[in-house]
Write a structure and sequence with these properties.
Helix content is 38%, strand content 34%. It is an alpha+beta fold and 164 residues long. The protein has a five-stranded antiparallel β-sheet with strand order 3-2-1-4-5, covered by helices on one side. A hairpin with a 5-residue loop joins strand 2 and strand 3. Helix 2 packs antiparallel against helix 3. The mean pLDDT is 83.
Length: 164
């Protein structure tokens, strides 16, 4: 979708939410002015619409780890590695009508190419049906950039985080 127009997925989401917010805000302003309501009610309503638009946009935008995973998946300098889950903490849950996800804080022991293991941490949303994949002792696949090994993400091709 973004390749032909040069727009990112995030930009499209923000523009769609902004368009709906403008339509709703304009509709409210039209009716409030038509009915002769005080100016403060118009401003209060517009503030509510703007606040609601920010909340909705935030819920549709990807998390930082997901954005990094997409970026690294297409980067030729990305390093693929395996990590053993040594510690897991559940941070939050979210549920929709079709899926339930849990935000995990994982502590991984990465096996590097030079036989040196290093401990890393990352946070990721995982669909509950796939939580056993991230249990202590399990191996997960990660990606990181050679120049910035501290920034890493789950390799979704090797270790899915959502049921397809």
């Amino acid at each position: 979708m973004g390749s032909t127009t040069g727009m990112t997925r995030e930009s499209v989401i923000i523009l769609r939410v902004a368009a709906v917010a403008l339509l709703c805000g304009g509709w409210f302003v039209f009716w409030f002015v038509k009915d002769g309501l005080p100016t403060w009610t118009i401003w209060a309503t517009l503030a509510f619409v703007a606040f609601f638009a920010v909340i909705v946009a935030k819920s549709f935008l990807p998390e930082a780890e997901e954005k990094l995973a997409r970026q690294l998946a297409g980067d030729s300098q990305a390093v693929r590695a395996c990590g053993k889950v040594v510690e897991i903490r559940r941070l939050a849950t979210q549920e929709t009508t079709t899926m339930r996800q849990t935000k995990l804080k994982l502590k991984l022991l990465l096996s590097e190419a030079d036989s040196v293991d290093r401990a890393v941490e990352l946070e990721v949303w995982v669909e509950d049906a796939l939580l056993p994949t991230f249990a202590s002792g399990k191996t997960v696949h990660v990606l990181y950039h050679r120049d910035e090994p501290s920034k890493l993400a789950i390799d979704r091709r090797q270790t899915p985080i959502q049921v397809q």
